[in-house]
Amino acid sequence: MTDKKIKMPDLSINFAGIKSPNPFWLASAPPTNSGYQIMKAFDAGWGGAVWKTLGVPVVNVSSRYGGVNYRDKRLVGFNNIELISDRPLADNLREIEEVKKRFPNHAVIASLMVQTRQEWHDIVRQSQDAGADGFELNFGCPHGMCERGMGSAVGQEPKVLQMIVEWVMEVATKPVIVKLTPNISDITEPAMAARRGGADAISLINTIQSIVGVDLDKFAPYPIVDGKGTNGGYCGPAVKPIALNMVKNCAQHPDVRLPISGIGGIENWRDAVEHILLGASSVQVCTAAMHFGFGIIREMTSGLEQYMVDKGFNTIYDFVGKALPNVLHWEDLNMKYKVTANIHEDKCIGCQLCYTACEDGAHQAIKLNAGTRVPEIIEENCVGCNLCSLVCPVEDCITMDRTDDGTEHLTWKQRTEAGTAPTEFNDERAGGRHHWVPEPAAALGKERHKTLPGKARILNGETEVPATA
Amino acid sequence: MAEYSTPTTEQEFQLNFAQLKPHMNRTEALYESSRCLFCFDAPCIKACPSGIDIPQFIRQINSGNDTGAARTIYEANYFGNACGKVCPTEVLCEGACVYNLQDVKPIEIGRLQSYATTKVIESGKKLFGPGAPNGKSVAVIGAGPSGISAACELRALGYEVDVFEAKAQPSGLTVYGVAPYKITNEETLAEMAYLQAQFGYNVHFNSPINSREELAELESKYDAIFLGIGLGKTNDLGLPGEDKINCTGAVEFIAELRQHHHQVAVGQKVIVLGGGNTAMDAASESARLGAENVVLAYRRGKEEMGAYDFEYDLAKGVGVKGLFNVAPVEIMGNGYVAGVKFIRTETKEGKVSEIAGSEFVEPCDMVIKATGQAKQTNFLSLIPGLKVDGKGRIVADAHTGQTTNPQYFASGDAWNGGAEVVNAAAEAKLTARGIHAYLSK
Question: Which long-range contacts (CB under 8 A, 24 or more apart) does B213-216 make?
């Protein structure tokens, strides 16, 4: 054996003073309900865990989760109507102590939700005495607790939020993270309130108010409790895009300037890297662990490590927020940039989804030719929207290729400033002014012979029917 | 030791003849239907002789509307479950699936089709019913795929329909001719019972129409007569010794097998004569019945066989051996079959010629002739003015199925010369509409 080793990247983080061997934390939720689960998770490789929210123990209902399935894929979205911990505080604190003893280098964060100043003081003191490495103030829960003036009811009121953070800071000796609710029009407002209150970091997003589905026979929303239901908190892969945008908003805002723990739809290393590239410096996972168990951490760390090796990143901080400079306002995008769809005939399998998508859902820039199933791009009609390449089921079959020469740069903002943007209803400068659009009546019956196959064609008299006899 | 031991009980028979396309459960149907791309102007529809709106019914299964899926299927093809199971989907819908071009397994369309139709059959859910009576009636001769399909469509159009069937059960070759590992008797008959309950046509079993007098009675009693008579017995080869015991026709052998399962005995060494799909079936079936050796003898080369590649693969898979470029000269034996005398052949410029002096005897104790079915020309000659073509096929209008005797219409094997269940089902639908157009004048 030689000493020649590939230098592996350092996954460890120091998040607002909370140290963790890797950036993957379990979010405050059912997987962190007990010391047993958290020890098991740390044993499996998780770097930290935010304990299921402590407070005055609740009583839960039976039937607590609902799922959104897409075709054969289970739990593309997930929601719950479970409340904070229903276990006595003393049991939780004793287990926090036990976990910290066994795993001194892992991050154990106590999620908290109480009402009065005194309660906040008491629970913060007791949690730090038990050995918690930090706190996460749950201002996000959008169901049940908010009806009692807690959770998202706080997160939606920046002034209240700030006041509670101030109460906490009066006694906290460990870093304080404020968990934000996405059920608000501008996420940066509570984020700034957290900062004003003195918080050390923010985490987002908590779950989104949701009804995941309605039982078509019982006429009640899922999950059903004795024939009735209530809104829940939505999470899982489906919420990632919303989370990413809110993480970006907080990371880009000049007045927030707090470390961000990214939460929302993370189930593999790729999702985690996306959160990090938009400004998160730790990530939290819940639904994926609830779906697949703690074992998913192995894929996540190995994928993150491989990505860092491939990119030459030594630490997480080498790429925290690395995509932020490329996220602009719409008005700052280059309007001279032009891509055009290109169908690679050798790869095309002839499903013609690109054709029907463009024809019905975009700009009628794809045509069919007799004798072949391979559609053809009408370049002059192609606006470069990507739709065809998005619906194409074959990898790299439709590529969007740059067709401008890359020398020009003009934004909407510049056009507005230069007075060359359309301003009147029938402005000559309208973007679609000289773009070909078929005559409305050309639509009628155009594809009935293809979209109404079999019996339907016969019934509609559009195929060979007995004419003679 | 043969690949299969001789089945002695129904249970052993079922094991040897396990369904090639077993029914799907809801989970499998959900997973499989999820893979469908919902192609525009889908190639699978075009490849289906009955034009079933396949992406539509797959989407219906996927969204939990199994009943709607069954309706979509039956609207285009009354033999919905049968076709799902016995169609050569590998060369039809599934062969046309665009996934093939990506080296991805095509959607299992046949099995999905059977999933939806079986479900509705089992539930007995009412999907269709007879149309308002129009006061006219049609006699259907033959309760096979074309006859029953025509009966359904005619009932939907408001006709009284009487079906006359020579045998004791409906569905024709679906229950008497298809290999047992493709479909079971129970499910075949269940679909027939379902259709009859939906449409309410009358079927007269064990009622062959054989004579001019019987036809004349139908002609006077019914406004139109539909010929769904199919084909006849296996062609005689005209070879010496063809009448020996254990020399049988494939159609007759399979009909026995479908009705009597493991009670059908097969030889230790079986020679099957022919290179079509029925020959492949007979060979496979012999092997599954426990024959030690099964030889498939064909007078041309392997590549020239009429059978689909997948059918030959299926036969090879159960141990059948091919013997090519040999023509049978004589069935040998003393009362019982003891062998076949062959002469070797060669194909030159598409023509097969025998090689003089190359005779040899291949010993065996059973011969199955899968050399095509005879046309029912004797019967057809009883119908005044009805023309058949040079191959004995009924001459009829391509769009209406009307024969040269305007009161008679035809579909299925007797018209097309011998094709799949799906072809008969599709043709009969059109012909029923042809009858309707004719009688509505």
Answer: B215/B382, B215/B383
| A369-386 confidence digits (pLDDT tens) | 999 999 999 999 999 999
In terms of residue numbers, what domain contains B386? 137-232+375-439
pLDDT at residue A469 greater than cutoff 50:
no
SS (H, E, C) B273-298: ECCCHHHHHHHHHHHHCCCCEEEEEE
Is residue A449 classed as helix, strand or coil in its secondary structure? helix
**Is B129 within the bounds of a domain?**
no
B3: in domain? no
Q: Is A391 on the interface with B (CB under 8 A)?
A: no
Q: Count how many domains chain B has.
A: 3
Percent over 90 (pLDDT), chain A: 87
What is the C-alpha to C-alpha distance for residues B93 and A358, in angstroms, rounded to an integer?
26
- My answer on whether B222 and B277 are in the same domain is no
Sorted by where each starts, the structural domains of chain A and their CATH numbers stand as 13-324 (3.20.20.70), 330-437 (3.30.70.20)
Residues of chain B contacting residue A454, judged by C-beta atoms under 8 Å apart: 45, 48, 50-53, 72, 75-76
Cβ distance A41 to A51 under 8 Å? no
- A213 and B CB contact within 8 Å: no
Query: DSSP string of B308-338?
Result: -HHHHHHHHHTT-EEEESEEEEEEESSSB--
Q: Which of A459, B138, A275 is nearest to B149 (CA)?
A: B138
Amino acid identity at A462: E
Please check whether residues B277 and B341 belong to one and the same domain. Answer: yes
* DSSP codes, B170-191: SSTHHHHTS-TTT--HHHHHHH
For B320-339, what is the mean pLDDT? 96
Residue B82 sits in a domain whose CATH number is: 1.10.1060.10
d(C-alpha A267, C-alpha A194), whole Å:
28
Q: Is the ipTM of this complex over 0.90?
A: yes
Active-site residue numbers of A?
141
Check residues B68 and A444 and name the one with the higher pLDDT. Answer: B68
Closest by Cβ to B400, choosing from A356, A451, A466: A466
Same-domain pairing of B267 and B361: yes
φ/ψ region of A23 (left if φ > 0, alpha if ψ in -120 to 50, else beta) reads: alpha
Q: Does B188 lie in the same domain as B262?
A: no
Who's near B414: CB < 8 A, 6+ residues apart?
Answer: B227, B228, B229, B230, B231, B375, B376, B380, B393, B394
